[in-house]
From TrEMBL, chain A:
Localization in the cell: Cytoplasm
Entry keyword annotation includes Iron: no
Signal peptide: none
Subunit details: Component of the eukaryotic translation initiation factor 3 (eIF-3) complex. The eIF-3 complex interacts with pix. Interacts with mxt.
Organism, scientific name: Ignelater luminosus (Cucubano)
One Pfam entry name: JAB
Presence of keyword Protein biosynthesis: yes
Protein function: Component of the eukaryotic translation initiation factor 3 (eIF-3) complex, which is involved in protein synthesis of a specialized repertoire of mRNAs and, together with other initiation factors, stimulates binding of mRNA and methionyl-tRNAi to the 40S ribosome. The eIF-3 complex specifically targets and initiates translation of a subset of mRNAs involved in cell proliferation.
Entry's family note: Belongs to the eIF-3 subunit H family.
PANTHER family assigned to the protein according to its UniProt record, in alphabetical order: EUKARYOTIC TRANSLATION INITIATION FACTOR 3 -RELATED
Organism superkingdom: Eukaryota
Protein name in the entry: Eukaryotic translation initiation factor 3 subunit H
TrEMBL record, chain B:
Protein's recorded name: Eukaryotic translation initiation factor 3 subunit C
Domain of life: Eukaryota
PANTHER family: EUKARYOTIC TRANSLATION INITATION FACTOR 3, SUBUNIT 8 EIF3S8 -RELATED, EUKARYOTIC TRANSLATION INITIATION FACTOR 3 SUBUNIT C-RELATED
Species of provenance: Ignelater luminosus
Matches recorded under HAMAP family: eIF3c (MF_03002)
Lineage: Eukaryota, Metazoa, Ecdysozoa, Arthropoda, Hexapoda
Length: 338, 879
């Protein structure tokens, strides 16, 4: 399962208007700062708008600004955005709205609101992307920024507004092809690069012991817990769907029985030269049960997928580290014995 | 009654005129006159007299209202006056040549002055009630308009304040206020009283009546005459306004009148005396008196019984004055005593009094007034004493009216002492519920508890001599209900051998009463209640095993939901005390089990009927609330809810915390106590936990300390000054309970410690543990052995070194999490497979008309071969 979703997400769509996202260092730093501030103060997610421009098949993100938190109703959000952009334009910043960003923990970003807002973005601004910043993982030293776009199927599905299994089947949407990941590149100006390399020389060299810090238990535990919750949820959904299926099959049987009875009656009536009773009543008698929407399970499945990916990734890293430690240990022991 | 008060109140110019009076006042004269007219038809009066009388009466009223500044009534009277004047106008035209009568003018002048004065007095006006000030304003306007018509007369009157006339006026005015104010009430009394009496009494009484009504009507006639006389006199005054020549005559007349006034005053006084007498005795006595005195000689048994029956027959009728009935009966009793008609009659009358007092309160839900309550108590005990002294009175419901015998022993009286007693007891509880439990009043009322108990004892004695078994059961239960919730320290002293076994404690008493009920009772309800009370009493006195055995033997917990609410409440109370008792005996599990049902709902207050929860979204209607209010327990029988909750939480803590520590990673862990969990979680959710304040916070803090294995901290949180005053000191043997608690805390904390930290240790010395938890080594040893036997702790004891060696076979945290996840995923796969199964089942069941749909689906599958091929394979295998 995990491998199934993996490659399809990494491969960008051929017909996509943009091939990769290139972000300025400034914008990235601003995103990181905002997300960390937000994560530190409370558990809310941070959101903001991305500004930039489209060059050929590349989306450049040159600046960004955070959305205000929903503390008061007096402020109109759109007005705020427009005003913000107008002001940024005055200071000669790109004011083309190219998407938005959001902070997330591991893989929990995938959700209904995200899907919805990205749909609105993408229908109004073709090229827009959502950038997900994983604050938890970044705080462990892995800067994780990912850009996603909705696939064509997902947009269509949203357009239809129906999440029955049939429509999902018809559109061939699964959790693995809701989003497509767009490669994310950070580009700094030459001057910045020079300064960075200068700084790198000034930073004292690390002893290297920290590279082998496993820290497995806590991280894995947290992820396992989250995964368990999601599995539970998905299980609930499955049970719900199962119940629905049973209802439908029972209804189907009832319907069948009723139709048989009706046809018998009609045969009897025909023998008596009477008009046959209409068979259309069946639709009135047996109203179809509402189909449980499948969007939520799909999203949960997507989340499980991301969690699984993260866990497997983490585990492979840890395993590698373990082997390295073993080798080092062996080397040390052999050294002491000699 | 109120009528009398209303009019009587008007002559004392008190400000305490209540609304009722104000409302009633204007109606008074109307009644009076209509009555008058009805009764005194014999008196022929000229229209002039009638009209003038009307006018003068109204004027008098206005004057009265003026005194008490009742503007609204004055306004209505003024309007009446106007109407009356219009009515009287033709007469006036005829009699006085269109001259406005002098007294009328005077009234107007006075009124105008008064209104102006009132109007000027701004401060006073502000103080007036809204209604009154409104009336004042409209009165002023109306008067202004009206006065314009009489301007001439008024100016004349003002300009010419006739000396002689004025003198007269002054003279007259002196007595007038008195007479004015007194006349109407008298009239009303005189006229209304007979009417009332006639209404109240049955027709059989009528032969007693004529004389009385005659006399009263005569007196009222007198009054009328006098009034008319005076009017005539007044009128003459106006006629001869300017006739100065006739001063002499006037003086004569004045003398005459003075005399008459004096006479009248005397009369009044006499009248008053007579009247006041009657008033003191209550309204009823005028009707009683003639009978008592007129037939003084003839009073005998039958007559008294007849009278009693008459009075009793009026009971429950709409017009019957209930208070009057009580008075009547008392009077009758006095008569009966006077003539020594025998104890049976006295008992009968007492019975009637008691039921009359019961009837006095029309509403069932409200308590009776305290004064009646004390009376009731007195009467009841008197009656019972009488019954006791005269053993030859048979009193029972089975005696019919015909069979009653009062004249000679053995007497037979119809009635039921037990029912009255039960009613009395219920009233007592109602009365207690009515009081504010924190006031002195409650204490005062509670003192009657002894009296009620004494009465119950008396009835019990009586019934033990005469009563049937079922009645005895009932009275025993009443006694039990007064006994079961009272704590008797002698029981415990006896248990400890401080008191000899021969002393009868409440325990033995309960035992005796309950056993009688168990043996003899025919109805299930009494037995159930007796058992519950018995258990309660046992639990209250620390007889844990007896109480528990009784509960288990009675199997009440299975059937209690079918019983009536009050029994259920008793059951809840019993369970609460059983829980407390179990706690005192260190049976924490039992304590928890007893209390969990009470506390789980979060509304023990309601379940124990110790107060209503605040209304939420109209959960219950008014009716329901009333019923629930009736079920409430009186305050002195309440069980301390905080104590209950604390005991529950502490026992939950002692069970739950080790359990939580033992099953930290168990997917199928279940909560033992939801309430405790909630408390714990809500405290965990807080970002900043301050030092504990309330009892709950203390317990939660203790639980946290216990989780970490700090038995000392835990103990300090549970047992400290605050908690002592709040909770533990409420126990009878608080120190024993505290010692027990400390011991339990130590043991359970040790268990928790071992569960939580065993994975850290390879081995642990028992002596260290014993030191850590300040427990005996043997205790530690036994606890650990128990844990090992129950496979809670994967370890073994190493005897020579006195250590516990851990096996370390428990999975690590991550491992157990992974196991849990595997479990969950298994579940998920199961349900997923079920979905698939039904799909396939459908697949083959589908009828022909759905073929198109199926084809569609198959096409899709064909396009997605790699995904579905596996499933195909599965399908094939199934074939």
């Amino acid at each position: 399962m995990a491998t199934r979703g993996g490659p399809s997400r990494r491969v960008p769509e051929n017909d996509s208007t943009i091939a990769y996202v290139q972000a300025d260092g400034l914008a990235v730093m601003k995103i990181v700062k905002h997300c960390h501030e937000e994560a530190a103060s409370n558990m809310d997610i941070a959101q903001g708008a991305l500004l930039g421009l489209v060059v050929d098949n590349r989306l450049e993100i040159t600046n960004c600004f955070p959305f205000p938190k929903h503390t008061d109703d007096t402020m109109d959000e759109e007005e705020y955005q427009l005003a913000m952009m107008r002001r940024l334009r005055r200071v000669n910043v790109d004011h083309f709205h190219v998407g938005w960003y959001q902070s997330a923990d591991v893989g929990n970003f995938l959700s209904l609101p995200l899907l919805e807002s990205q749909y609105h973005y993408q229908t109004s601004i073709e090229e827009s992307v959502v950038v997900i910043y994983d604050s938890q993982k970044s705080s462990r030293g892995f800067l994780t920024l990912k850009a996603y776009r909705l696939t064509q199927q997902a947009i269509e599905m949203y357009k239809e507004g129906e999440f029955t299994p049939e429509t999902l089947l018809k559109l061939k949407v699964g959790f693995e092809n809701l989003f497509v990941e767009v490669p994310f590149v950070i580009k700094n100006s030459a001057l910045t690069n020079i300064m960075m390399s200068e700084l790198a020389e000034m930073v004292p060299e690390e002893q290297g012991s920290k590279f082998l810090d496993l820290g497995t238990a806590s991280v894995l535990e947290g992820q396992l817990r989250c995964l368990m919750d999601r599995v539970d949820e998905l299980n609930q959904e499955a049970i719900k769907f199962n119940r629905y299926q049973q209802l439908v099959s029972r209804q189907q049987q009832d319907k069948h029985r009723w139709l048989q009875k009706r046809s018998q009656e009609n045969a009897a009536r025909a023998a008596k030269d009477e008009l046959p009773l209409p068979e259309e009543d069946v639709n009135k008698l047996f109203r179809p049960h509402p189909v449980p929407p499948r969007l939520n399970p799909m999203i949960i499945a997507g989340q499980i997928n991301t969690y699984s990916q993260h866990i497997s990734q983490f585990c492979s890293q840890s395993l590698a580290k373990l082997y390295i430690t073993q080798a080092l240990q062996n080397a040390k022991e052999s050294k002491t014995t000699i | 009654m109120s009528r009398f008060f209303a009019t009587g109140g008007s002559d004392s110019d008190s400000d305490s005129s209540s609304d009722e009076e104000v409302v009633q006042r204007p109606t008074v004269p109307v009644y009076t006159f209509s009555d008058d007219e009805e009764e005194i038809k014999r008196v022929v009066r000229s229209t002039k007299e009638k009209r003038y009388e009307e006018l003068t009466n109204l004027i008098k009223q206005i004057r009265n209202f003026k005194k008490i500044k009742d503007m609204s009534s004055m306004l209505s009277s003024f309007e009446d006056l106007q109407k009356a004047y219009v009515k009287a106008l033709p007469v006036i035209q005829k009699e006085e040549n269109g001259q406005t009568p002098r007294f009328y003018t005077r009234c107007l002048v006075e009124l105008e002055d008064f209104i102006n004065e009132m109007w000027e007095d701004r401060e006073g006006r502000k103080n007036l009630s809204k209604n009154n000030s409104k009336s004042l304003a409209s009165m002023r306007q109306k008067l202004r308009k009206y006065v314009k018509e009489f301007e001439e007369d008024l100016t004349k009157f003002r300009a010419n304040p006739d000396m002689p006339d004025d003198e007269e006026d002054e003279e007259k005015r002196d007595p007038e206020p008195d007479s004015d104010s007194e006349v109407p009430p008298k009239a009303t009394i005189k006229t209304s009283k007979p009417a009332e009496g006639e209404e109240g009494e049955s027709s059989s009484d009528s032969d007693d009546w004529p004389s009385d009504s005659e006399s009263s009507s005569a007196s009222s006639e007198d009054e009328d005459k006098f009034q008319t006389m005076r009017e005539r006199f007044l009128k003459r005054n106006t006629e001869k306004e300017e006739d100065e020549e006739k001063e002499k005559k006037k003086e004569e007349r004045r003398k005459e009148r003075k005399d008459r006034e004096k006479r009248r005053k005397k009369e009044d006084e006499e009248d008053e005396e007579g009247e006041w007498e009657t008033v003191k005795g209550g309204m009823a006595i005028p009707s009683e008196k003639p009978k008592m005195f007129a037939k003084d000689a003839e009073i005998d048994l039958n007559l008294v019984i007849k009278k009693l029956n008459e009075i009793v027959a009026a009971r429950g009728k709409k017009r019957t004055d209930r208070r009057e009935q009580i008075e009547l009966l008392h009077e009758l009793q006095a008569v009966a005593d006077q003539h020594q008609l025998g104890p049976a009659v006295a008992v009968k009358i007492k019975f009637a009094i008691i039921s009359a007092i019961f009837d006095y309160n029309p509403k069932v839900s409200d308590a009776m007034k305290p004064e009646y309550w004390t009376r009731l108590l007195e009467r009841m005990s008197e009656m019972l004493d009488m019954l006791q002294n005269h053993g030859d009175i048979l009193i029972s419901e089975s005696v019919t009216e015909e069979m009653e015998r009062f004249d000679e022993p053995p007497y037979r009286v119809r009635g039921c002492v037990l029912t009255s007693l039960e009613r009395l007891d219920d009233e007592f509880i109602k009365l207690l519920k009515e009081c504010d439990p924190h006031s002195n009043e409650y204490v005062e009322r509670l003192k009657d508890e002894a009296k009620v108990s004494a009465i119950i004892d008396k009835v019990q004695k009586h019934l033990e001599l005469h009563g049937a078994q079922s009645e005895l059961c009932r009275i025993y239960l009443r006694k039990i209900e007064h006994l079961y919730y009272k704590f008797d320290p002698t029981v415990l002293q006896q248990k400890n051998g401080e008191i000899k076994l021969t002393v009868v404690t409440s325990m033995q008493e309960m035992e005796r009463l309950c056993k009688y009920i168990y043996a003899k009772d025919g109805t299930d309800r009494l037995r159930t209640r007796a058992i519950l009370s018995h258990i309660y009493h046992h639990a209250l006195h620390d007889n844990w095993f007896q109480a528990r055995d009784l509960v288990l033997m009675s199997h009440l917990q299975e059937t209690i939901q079918h019983s009536d609410p009050s029994t259920q409440i008793l059951y809840n109370r019993t369970m609460a005390h059983l829980g407390l008792c179990a706690f005192r005996h260190a049976n924490i599990k039992d304590a928890h089990n007893c209390l969990v049902d009470l506390m789980m709902t979060g509304k023990p207050k309601e379940l124990l009927a110790q107060g209503l929860l605040p209304q939420r979204q109209h959960e219950r209607s008014k009716e329901q609330e009333k019923i629930e209010k009736q079920r409430q327990m009186p305050f002195h029988m309440h069980i301390n809810l905080e104590l209950l909750e604390c005991v529950y939480l502490v026992s939950a803590m002692l069970i739950e915390i080790p359990y939580m520590a033992a099953h930290e990673f168990d997917a199928r862990r279940r909560m033992i106590s939801k309430t405790f969990y909630q408390q714990l979680r809500s405290s965990e959710r807080q970002s900043l936990v301050g030092p504990p304040e309330s009892m709950r916070e203390h317990v939660v803090a203790a639980a946290k300390a216990m989780r970490n294995g700090h038995w000392g901290a835990c103990n300090n949180f549970i047992i400290n000054e605050k908690m002592n005053t709040k909770v533990w000191d409420l126990f009878y043997q608080a120190d024993a309970v505290r010692a027990m608690l400390t011991k339990l805390i130590k043991e359970e904390t040790l268990r928790t410690y071992l569960f939580t930290y065993s994975h850290v240790y390879d081995s642990i010395s028992m002596s260290t543990l014993a030191e850590m938890f300040e427990l005996d080594k043997s205790v530690v040893h036994s606890i650990i052995s128990k844990m090992i036997i129950n496979e809670e702790l994967m370890a073994s004891l190493d005897d020579p070194s006195q250590t516990v060696v851990m096996h370390r076979s428990e999975p690590s945290r991550l491992q157990s999490l992974a196991l849990q996840l595997a479990d969950k995923i298994n579940n998920f796969v199961d349900s997923n497979e079920r979905i698939l199964e039904t799909k396939q089942g459908n697949f083959f069941l589908r009828s022909a008309n759905q073929g198109a749909f199926r084809g569609d689906r198959q096409n899709y599958r064909a396009g997605n071969v790699q995904d579905w091929s596996r499933q195909r394979r599965d399908n094939r295998r199934e074939y």
